[in-house]
Amino acid sequence: MNVIEIRGVTKKYSQFALDQVSFGIKQGFITGLIGPNGAGKSTLIKLLMGMAVPEQGEISIFGKPMPQQEGQIKEQIGFVSDESHFYEHLTIAAMKNVIAPFYKQWNEALFKNYLDRFELSQKTKIKNLSKGMKMKFSLACALSHQADLLIMDEPTAGLDPVFRRELLDILGELMLDEKKTILFSTHITTDLDRIADFITFVNRGKLVFSDSKEQILDRYVLVKGDTALLDRDLRNAFIGIRETSIGFEGLSANRSEAERLFGSYAKMVSPTLEDIMYFTAKGGRTHA
């Protein structure tokens, strides 16, 4: 079952366009939304949150059309962003009193439990919180109205490694409830190497792929060898390629074809998500 369905969505700006994007987000899993800066991740998040409206195509969340049933849908969504949307002059307690009435399922005991876990005092003013502490407060708010879908927009950007690891552990615990779903938008792909079940990759406003992480890493291969092996046709067989004085690295989306072309003359290595994103962006491909 898909919690989110995006079908043929197009959104145009003066210097950027999200073009005919279609994919689904499965219930009960963590899906990573990746792509270089300017690829379209933030536009997709805005469309999902009703902060922008598509010019073409349809979006449904929990089987309800967005933005037509935005109010009902947002009752079930927890949103966490790397940008603070809180009133800086308020305390945590006062800011919570602004947020909580918007949600029928707000759980005050759960909220206090998260504050204790995150070592946040209700008396502290928002302006005195570090970026990591603001992220913890944002996460506490998102989790305290018992949302079934958590949408996270660059949640680990600028955070120290200790809190990044803590955040990923919290998300792992949350997924023990198989009804919960997380969409995690980031350009820090190492976080997704650890926790993601599915990956959706956008580049230059187009969908590259949306598939299970396991299938993606099985399909793609990083080929390393001597540049003497390359000719024009072989270079064109790669999504992206990097050549140096000591050899080349090239990304292929067809492992069996790469093995046929290069045999034992080159080294075949399983790529990371960062490798896939880097070589795709470098090669200028929108569809791998």
From TrEMBL:
Pfam families: ABC_tran. It comes from the Bacteria. CDD domains: ABC_DR_subfamily_A. SUPFAM superfamilies: P-loop containing nucleoside triphosphate hydrolases. Residues 1-229 form the ABC transporter domain. GO terms for molecular function: ATP binding. Transmembrane segments: none annotated. Keywords: ATP-binding, Nucleotide-binding, Transport. InterPro entries: AAA+_ATPase, ABC_transporter-like_ATP-bd, ABC_transporter-like_CS, ABC_Transporter_VariousFunc, P-loop_NTPase. This is ABC-2 type transport system ATP-binding protein. It comes from Paenibacillus eucommiae.
